[in-house]
Specification:
Elements lengths: L9 H7 L4 H4 L3 H10 L5 E4 L5 H10 L9 E5 L2 E6 L7 H10 L2 H11 L5 E2 L7 E5 L4 E6 L10 E10 L12 E4 L6 E5 L5 E6 L6 E3 L11 E11 L10 E2 L8 H22 L3 H32 L1
Antiparallel strand pairs: 1-10, 2-3, 3-5, 3-6, 4-12, 5-12, 6-11, 6-13, 7-10, 7-12, 8-9, 8-11
Helix pairs in contact: 4-5
């Protein structure tokens, strides 16, 4: 496999302050083989992915949840929050996102995965920063196959960088990778601090963290999520996010399916009209706040009743 020469320049030195390329390149052939042979589909988990100080900076600058600046992905199939507006993100965290979108990293990614012609999405559509609190989840799904605003962009690779210190197994939130028929789970990956998971995406690369988080209320599951594309010259099948129920899901599978149908309609509208998720997010955020308020009221009533007893 062709490898990039390890030249030391001012730019390389700056980039090495974020990602330790010189540690990865000597093992790139081995990492490539490991990636393409992984089951249930090509993937790899890389620990100590960022330079330690860069990982610490990312965690320290990770924005706290603010319903006004976070996109609400809150419906039957998921409960998480996203942020793509770089103007609301700290400088050091922005530098990391910019490095993950840089030509050098994309070239590294191309050599790792064996996929030629990869490029980053500067708009961070559906990606950016992700944050999930207690009770949050993401049902099993295969990602949308084409960029909603660029018909020739085919989605090929996901990169997830986790920023969760002291994450315990009992909190759940592990990334689950299932076989292509959604019959069984093949791998489970903990979202531990400074771990990067890279995997190929297609219409049947099912993944998610469907078990509601049980972390403390003052703790969230944090990640940087970036998606990479190739430009296709031939027409390809564009599919919206394909949510699937697990074999042991019972009545819940009906709601998963109905929600998926609604989301398909939204995805169709989004592609035709060129809208983004922010408008819908405001509506979902409004309903989320109402639900949270009702939940708080119920909790207070329950405590009062308990005290009387």
């Amino acid at each position: 496999m062709l490898q990039l020469p390890l030249m030391t320049t001012e730019l390389d030195t700056k980039q090495e302050l974020i990602i330790p390329y010189s540690s990865f390149y000597p093992n790139l052939d081995h990492l490539h083989t490991k990636y393409i042979q992984a089951e249930p589909y090509p993937h790899i988990a890389l620990d100590d992915f960022l330079i330690p100080q860069a990982a610490e900076d990312a965690l320290n600058e990770f924005p706290p949840f603010d319903s006004k600046t976070w996109i609400h992905y809150v419906h039957v199939n998921e409960k998480k929050f996203g942020k793509t507006d770089l103007s609301t993100i700290g400088k050091k965290l922005c530098n990391i996102i910019e490095e993950l979108n840089s030509e050098k990293f994309v070239e590294f990614l191309s050599q790792l995965t064996g996929i030629k012609g990869l490029f980053a999405d500067p708009s961070l559509e559906g990606g950016g920063l992700h944050q999930t609190g207690r009770g949050g989840f993401l049902n099993m799904h295969a990602d949308f196959t084409g960029h909603p605003h660029h018909p020739t962009w085919r989605r090929r690779v996901n990169v997830l960088v986790y920023l969760n210190k002291n994450w315990e197994t009992k909190y759940h939130g592990h990334l689950e990778l299932w076989d292509r028929t959604m019959k069984r789970r093949i791998r489970k990956i903990a979202p531990t601090f400074n771990r990067c998971v890279i995997f190929s995406t297609d219409k049947d690369t099912f993944h998610g963290h469907p078990i509601p988080l049980a972390c403390p209320k003052n703790m969230t599951r944090k990640s940087i999520a970036l998606y990479y594309f190739t430009k296709e010259h031939k027409k390809f099948a564009v599919k919206s996010t394909e949510y699937r129920s697990r074999p042991h899901d019972t009545i819940h599978r009906v709601w998963i399916y109905l929600d998926k149908v609604i989301l398909r309609c939204y995805d169709f509208t989004k592609r035709r009209l060129g809208i983004n998720d922010k408008a819908v997010s405001r509506m979902l955020g409004f309903f989320h706040q109402i639900r949270e308020s009702i939940s708080d009221i119920k909790g207070k009533i329950s405590k009062k009743k308990h005290k009387k007893l």
